Amino acid sequence: MKRVSLARVLLTVVFAGMLATPAIMRRYASQRGESASVHTDCQSAISRYGFCFEEVSKQAGIDFVHEAPVLDPKLNGIMPEVASMGASVSIVDFDGDGWPDIYVTNSRIGSMNHLYRNNHDGTFTDVAAQLGIADVNRPGTGVSMGAVWGDYDNDGYEDLFLIKWGKPELFHNDGGKGFTRVTESAGLPPWINANTAVWLDYDNDGKLDLFVGGYYPEDVNLWRLANTRMMPESFEYAKNGGRKYLFHNLGNGRFEEISAKAGISSRRWALACAAADLRGTGYPDLFVADDYGVSELYLNDHGHFHEAGAETGVGFAPKSGMNASFGDIFNQGRYSIYVSNISEEGVLIQGNNLWVPEDGSGLHYRNMARDLGVELGGWSFGAQFGDLNNDGNLDLFLENGFISASRTQSYWYDFSKVAGGNSSIISDALHWPPFDGRSLSGYQQKKVWINDGAGKFEDVAQAVGVTDRYDGRAVALADLWNTGTLDAVVANQRGPLLIYKDVVAPNRDWIEFDLEGTGSNRSAIGAQVTLFWSGKEQVQSVAGGNGFASENDRRLHFGLGENPQIEKAVIRWPSGIVQTLDHLTPNRLVHVKEPA
Amino acid sequence: MNSPAVAAPQSAPPPRVLWKTLLDSRFTPPIFITLILLVGNLSFGILESYQKTLLAIGVSIAGEMILGRIFLGKWPHPSSAYITGISVGILLRSPAYWTYALCAALSITSKYALRFRGRHIWNPSNFGICAMLFLASDAVAGLSIQWGNNFASLIVIWVLGSLILWRARRFHITAVYVVSFIALSLVRAHITGDPWQSEISPITGPMYQLFIFFMITDPKTTVRSRTGQCIVAFTIALVEFFMRLDSSIYAPLYALFWVGPAALLIEMWLDARRKRAAAPFATLDPAPARP
User: Fold this and answer.
1) A434 contacts in B (CB within 8 Å)?
2) Cα separation of A191 and A218, whole Å?
């Protein structure tokens, strides 16, 4: 009897301890991140973290504010949700002057896209209208959702593919002095409701091909809806989205759609994609992050794809994929993949995914987002890997925030009510309660996770000056002023374009590579640089679009830390040529032309 | 969602062959919920991961065995703890492992720590999940999304679940709740002006499939009389109705959290009052002892 009484006391204590466990863990976690959550001055941030950001859009002469789409009035009740994308940013040196320029999209019918030419003095000038790529959101043609740049005809100038809900557009770059619309002659389809595309040379024939991922089905005109049954049939298992396209470059200015022939067939709701050689085959593989479902990984078998999401581990648990970016976060010569999803305290904790390749034969990934501390990022959208403090480790910049409206009223209850329902309910927009000015995961703090190189990321966004609370969509990284640091350009939905200028501790070195293909495509998309320095190794590849609705600077940036000893850089070109560069010195941009 | 919807037999069962053992009423609900889980996961990947669900099941069964041995002096039948663990694995959504272990441990421990007159009054998994949603909302969420997207899977689960409950003579509980929910949904749509489909929507989702077939029918934490069970089912729907008007996302779980124990306490109070009233007569004319 006495033993049972003692046991009962112990049980009560243990039970109380269990009830207190979440509070203890929360306190521990908040204490750990406390110092990084306070905004300090730039010098303090530099001394503590090695860098800080200064928002300089006004000084740079940029006052762009994104305008959201206004769709069919039948969708008025949930317009904030269906019209929640379109802000995008891509970095391109369109005139070949060696300085990165910025292209941003607008999404209201009649609104203008902007191309900000770099004036080399810290300022930019919008030249989109005079070059013919501003007025691209005309009535009857849909609106812009993003843009990717690639030199499809190998003439030395980057051409523009405009991703739209509507008529996709291809513009040929006429020597950096103007653009010619070549959509019809290129053979592109009349209408795609897409949010993502990537340039890649999938068959390594030296000519850039183009993948486009549909979101809404292509027979839906969002401005003239036949009916309101255009929503996803499920929150996690939807397969009623837009089709996918793989446009094979025929080399005469024309493209042939060959997705089915190449093994790509899906109607999942694609939101982001990225391409890189994940297996060392010499051919680019294709990762597609899908909203309302699992991600897809198309492995490239010498020009033919097979979908391997489930077998590689990345395509099993369905979430709300909204980003795809690659980064060698452990400096092991292998890419991890970051996919953003939704997390809202107490409502929906999907958690972002950081897919890290596992050792052993075959390609298999393990989600280590929680272990590394990059799991919870709110309603996450675009993310990019880059060495923000030049310490030799890739950091992660994440945008988030879905709909910021009322500060006091949330739509989450209504959202969860319908999102869990049967397809016949969820798929009809008329079944969704109206927003009535409420927010849905709005006013969120951004994440700037710095990589300590030992398996942990720490969020320092507030401390280093990324303090805005706009509804972030796309982020692109570029050395805008050729100073050896990675600046961040952020496109916000219904918000201003922000330029975060990166200020890095002066004792940290860097090196950048600007590649030009000859036998390979001239943009060098798919070329891979492995840098060996001070006993470390890091791989990066040239991309034709990645993240969410974004494209980084084509040049590859490597942070090196203090007093680095560069051993060599090995470049593997898409043509198969392997080139080794010795005698490299830090703190310079290295121009490399593919050897014959 | 702890004990099977079918009450355990009172006396030790005679020796049986395997298939007869599988038909043992104590195994029916575990087999049913396992089938739901396996079909759902193989078809749609409904689980966060097998490992997390197995962790919840393991912690749940281990906890039940240890606590049962200490406090009841016997090894409990594992089916109840199995259902608790599997329910936690399905209903809890979290990227972390510790949340599954803690939720399962809380659920089982609540059976032994929170007792009134020798009876546990909270449905264990309902307690565990509500506790986690209250206390660890930064780390967990409830299952609020869909499994699959067609009526076929929904109908199969509803038909199978209804048949099992019918056999267990508890179908009336589910029926009263479902009818009440639908009727009150229409009232709610009228009040809020939202589409009625959006108010009906939750009951077509997976959380409700588990809620109506396993949680509110749990024999250990429901009242005994058939009328009482119907009243409790309606009351849960009514409390949920008001909570939903207040935009509570996990309204059904919270409604059961409050109504379930309250109903049991009222039943115990009524029983005690009846016993007290019958006591003077019992001494004069004692009832014959049960065999």
Assistant:
1) 194
2) 6
The residues that bridge with A403 in the sheet, in sequence order, are A440
| Buried residues in B38-51 as b, exposed as e (16+ CB within 10 A) | ebbbeebbbbbbee
Q: What is the dihedral of CA B211, B212, B213, B216, to 10 degrees?
A: 80
For A504-549, what is each residue's pLDDT tens digit? 999 999 999 999 999 999 999 999 999 999 999 999 999 999 999 9
Whether pLDDT at B27 is above 80: no
HEC per residue, chain B: CCCCCCCCCCCCCCCCCHHHHHHCCCCHHHHHHHHHHHHHHHHHCCCCCHHHHHHHHHHHHHHHHHHHHHHCCCCCCCHHHHHHHHHHHHHEECCCCHHHHHHHHHHHHHHHHCEECCEECCCHHHHHHHHHHHHCCCCCEECCCCCCCCHHHHHHHHHHHHHHHHHCCCHHHHHHHHHHHHHHHHHHHHHHCCCHHHHHHHHHCHHHHHHHHHHCCCHHHCCCCHHHHHHHHHHHHHHHHHHHHCCCCCHHHHHHHHHHHHHHHHHHHHHHHHHHHHHHHHHHCCCCCCC
Torsion of CA B51, B56, B59, B62, to 10 degrees: -100
Kindly list the residues from chain B whose CB atom is less than 8 angstroms away from the CB atom of residue A25. Answer: 98, 136, 139
Give the integer Cα–Cα distance in Å for B89 and A190. 47
Q: What is the predicted pLDDT for the residue at A86?
A: 98
| Pair A189, A218: CB distance under 8 Å | yes
Contact A425 B106 (CB under 8 A): no
- Residue A126 backbone phi and psi in degrees, to 5: -75, 120
Tell if the CB–CB gap between B141 and A347 is shorter than 8 Å: yes
Q: Which amino acid is at A403?
A: I
Token reading at A579: 């080139």
* pLDDT (0 to 100) of residue B3: 45
**Minimal Cβ distance to B113: which of A15, A25, A294:** A15
Note whether B41 contacts A: Cβ–Cβ < 8 A.
no
* Packing angle, helices B28-44 and B79-91, rounded to 10: 30
Residue B172 and residue B229 in contact, taking contact as beta carbons nearer than 8 Å: yes
Q: Minimal Cα distance from A436: which residue of B?
A: B194
Q: Chain A within 8 Å of B138 (Cβ-Cβ)?
A: yes
- Stretches where chain A sits below pLDDT 50 are none
In 3D, which of B2, B1, B170 has the Cα closest to residue B80? B2
Interface membership of B240 toward A (CB under 8 Å): no
Q: In this structure, which amino acid lies at residue B170?
A: R
Do A213 and A200 contact (CB within 8 A), yes or no?
A: no
**What pLDDT does residue B206 have?**
74
ipTM, two decimals, is 0.87
Percentage, residues of chain B above pLDDT 90: 51
Nearest residue in chain A measured CA to CA from B93 = A349
The answer to whether residue B118 neighbours chain A at the CB level (below 8 Å) is no
First-residue to last-residue Cα distance in chain A: 89
Q: How many whole angstroms separate alpha carbon B231 and alpha carbon B211?
A: 17
- What are the beta bridge partners of residue A300? A305
| DSSP structure class, residue A433 | P
In the Cβ-directed half-sphere of A344, how many Cα atoms lie within 13 Å? 23
More confident of the two residues B222 and B59: B59
CA dihedral A427, A431, A434, A438 (to 10 degrees): -60
Write down the pLDDT at residue B148.
Answer: 59
Interface of B with A in 268-287 (CB under 8 A): none
- Rg over alpha carbons for chain A, rounded to the nearest Å, is 24
Q: Which two tokens stand for residue B74?
A: 């016997």
pLDDT in tens, B30-43: 887 888 778 777 76
Of the pLDDT bands very low, low, confident and very high (cuts 50, 70, 90), residue B44 is low
- Separation in Å, CA of A376 to nearest CA in chain B: 9
Give the residue from A25, A422, A436, A439 with the most B CB atoms within 10 Å of its CB, the best one to mutate: A422
